Amino acid sequence: MSRSLRVAALATAALTLSGCAGVTLGPGEVVSRTVVSTRREVERSSGALAADLRQSGTTVSVKVERACLGEERVIPTISTVTEYARLNGNPKADWILLVGGLASAGLGAAMIASPETFQSSSFSRRESVGWGVGASALGGTLLVVALIDVVRASGVERTTTKGEGNPTVVRKGVDCGRTPERGATLVARDEEGHAIHLGTTDATGEAQADLAGGETRALAERGGRWTFSVGDAADRWRDVGIVDRGPLLARLEDDAWKRLDPAACERSATAAHCAAVSEFLARFPGSARAAVADGALRAYRESREREQREAAALAAREEAAAAVAAKRQEAAAAAAAKRSAAAAAAAASRAKCSSGCRAACAGDGPCAAKCVQTNCK
Questions:
Q1: pTM, 2 dp
Q2: I want to staple 371 with a disulfide (CB 3.0 to 4.6 A). Which of 300, 316, 344, 357 is the partner?
Q3: Alpha-carbon dihedral sign for residues 178, 182, 187, 193
Q4: Is beta strand 168-180 parallel, antiparallel or unpaired with respect to 185-189?
Q5: pLDDT band at 44; cut points 50, 70, 90
Q6: 241 torsion bin: left (phi>0), alpha (psi -120 to 50), beta (else)
Q7: Burial readout 227-245 (b: 16 or more C-beta within 10 A, e: otherwise)
Q8: Distance between CA atoms of 11 and 8, rounded to whole angstroms?
Q9: Confidence of residue 7 (pLDDT cuts 50, 70, 90)
């Protein structure tokens, strides 16, 4: 192969590999949308609390669930066809290739057709023909590359995509079941608004409480009408039942009765026993044990009254005996005084008589003694 043909071959290969312009896509234009399928779903939303409350004696159990009320929606699947126009990424280069190809092909044809025109002392007729063939090949290649770019940049490309369209609500208020409500609070409220915390639901939505324990004894002490309520974290409350205080009162009555000793009160052992029985009657006036308690108190009162009567009678007897003793003492004192006065008078009379005897006997001793013995007794 001559030198001119080799140069032409290399130039042709280089232009073929690097001469093609890049093809880009223009803005897409949607040409069709078709619904190919639909599906239904329920959009879930939280509803109100629902509670199932049960009371067995003093034990209260509750299961709290959150109702689900949703919307049934139809969601279409849409097939979208979009067309994109092909665009020549570098049209200026194709124009250069077109012009260069025409010039090169024309020059090569001229050199082949009239080699003598380009022949010189250093450029033979054969070399002129060779360079003409190379230039024609190069020009043809440039024209082919430009033509390929024109073909590649013509027409459009289509793409098909599938996606979900806007949902359509076909039914509202659909019951979509219930879910356990964790952390719901169970309380008991009276008519004045006082609340007693009974417990909090666990992961299964359940809670349990004993009404006879701790603070809940106020249910019995306050009386009135108590209501069970449940509430959530947003402080939304709902009444779910009425408290049956009967079992609680019976439990408290049993506990109070176990601490009593009516027999000791009846025996009048101590006033403390009867004070406890009296307090029981004040707290539980309608109790079936009221008759027993009242009987013990009545026996205690009767015993105390009997003891008081006996004590009063004993005091009266002692007082009467003391009065009799006092009168006897007074009579004895009067008699003693009387005897003392009589003795004094007798002594004075004897003294006077003795004096008279001595005077009558003129100092005669035997005469005076005989006179005293005879007259002064």
A1: 0.43
A2: 357
A3: negative
A4: unpaired
A5: low
A6: left
A7: ebbbbbeeeeeeebbebeb
A8: 5
A9: very low
